[in-house]
Design a protein that fits this description.
Distance between the termini: 53 Å
Radius of gyration: 21 Å
Number of domains: 1
CATH class: Alpha Beta
Oligomer: single chain
Largest sheet: 8 strands, mixed
Number of strands: 13
Shape: globular
Strand content: 15-25%
Number of helices: 7
């Protein structure tokens, strides 16, 4: 057990093995006990850190598909590894073990790591991906703040997909948030205030902002009737926004091809279901009315796009349906298949 006083650069204070993060918040156990820096990690100049944690919303598997696209572009070099034994509740997300005849052959242990990747122009950046911590959110946030300082990270960006009552036949929207006003310039807010279920990555962004770091996030709007299907169109939008925000040159060819195939499949499935076609038509009318009102007044209009409360309810329904196989065939919440 940790005891006595510890000294960590940038801490406000540390007593009895606990410290107060520089941005404020509760005193936490030494954050350095949550991770290990790899001795042969590459040194990057002012890198960007992309954060994608699974286990929360990620409608349309948008963030997962984006991460797969980034990782497929080149070999990843390990930089830091988190101790998942302290962060993951194995009983709620049981890792798979493979049984062969009379013995256990393989254990797919969960991994929560920071790796170094390179964009198509040769610029290095960092990616943190893996399961969202089930516990110790404050300590995890403090650990990431430590790593941001240690690795000289200039900007932290998180991405995800959220279910929205919007049609797939219209431009894909994105909600942008950040710790500084200049990070979200040029992006119109859909609403002013919303209370949604909390997440570890949202807390990380909040604490990084309190500590004075630049951090932001993109939440792509996925049609709620496609939220449980893979929607590569949304993943491509996330990668495009990520590239613009960071200045990185990120590949999208694989996602573009997948999106074209998905568009054809969705069109066929919608045409085959009168019920789903009616849902899409109603959403198109609603969307067009809102955009028309907004354009006419030069700002967010008075139409009926989802309110903040409706967004929160949609997210909660999505989370509740993760373990509900029957929800997949509901044209109001699942994919039209």
């Amino acid at each position: 057990m940790l005891c006595g006083q510890i000294h960590v650069p940038g801490t406000v204070g540390a007593v009895n093995g606990r410290r107060v993060p520089p941005g404020g918040g509760v005193a936490v156990l030494d954050p350095a006990g949550l991770y290990r820096l790899e001795p042969d990690a590459p040194a990057l100049d002012d890198p960007v850190l992309v954060v994608v944690l699974d286990g929360f919303v990620d409608a349309g598997a948008a963030a997962r598909l984006a991460v797969e696209s980034l990782r497929a572009a080149g070999a990843a070099q390990p930089v830091a590894r988190f101790d998942v034994d302290q962060l993951v509740d194995y009983r709620s997300r049981r890792p798979p073990l493979r049984f062969e005849t009379d013995h256990w052959e393989h254990y797919a242990a969960p991994e929560l790591d920071i790796v170094a990747l390179t964009d198509t122009a040769g610029t290095g950046y960092l990616l943190l991906s893996g399961p969202e911590p089930d516990t110790q959110w404050e300590r995890f946030a403090a650990a990431l703040e430590e790593l941001v300082r240690t690795l000289g990270v200039r900007l932290v960006v998180n991405v995800t997909g959220i279910p929205m009552a919007v049609p797939h036949t219209r431009p894909i929207g994105v909600t942008v948030h950040g710790t500084r006003p200049e990070l979200t310039e040029g992006h119109e807010a859909l609403f002013a205030t919303a209370e949604v279920p909390g997440s570890a990555v949202a807390l990380v962004e909040y604490r990084l902002g309190q500590a004075g770091h630049a951090a932001m996030g993109f939440a792509v709007h996925v049609p709620h009737y496609l939220a449980r299907a893979e929607y590569p169109q949304a993943a491509r939008v996330l990668v495009d926004h990520l590239a613009v925000a960071t200045g990185l040159y990120l590949p999208t060819e694989t996602l573009t091809s997948a999106a074209e195939r998905a568009e054809r499949e969705i069109a066929e499935q919608v045409a085959a279901s009168e019920e789903v076609a009616q849902v899409v038509a109603a959403l198109e009318q609603q969307y067009d009315t809102v955009i028309s009102d907004a354009t006419g007044r030069g700002g967010p209009g008075g139409g009926e796009l989802p309110s903040a409360d409706e967004l929160a309810a949609e997210v909660e329904r999505f989370l509740a349906g993760h373990d509900d196989p029957d929800g997949r065939d509901d044209p109001g919440t699942g994919s039209p298949r």
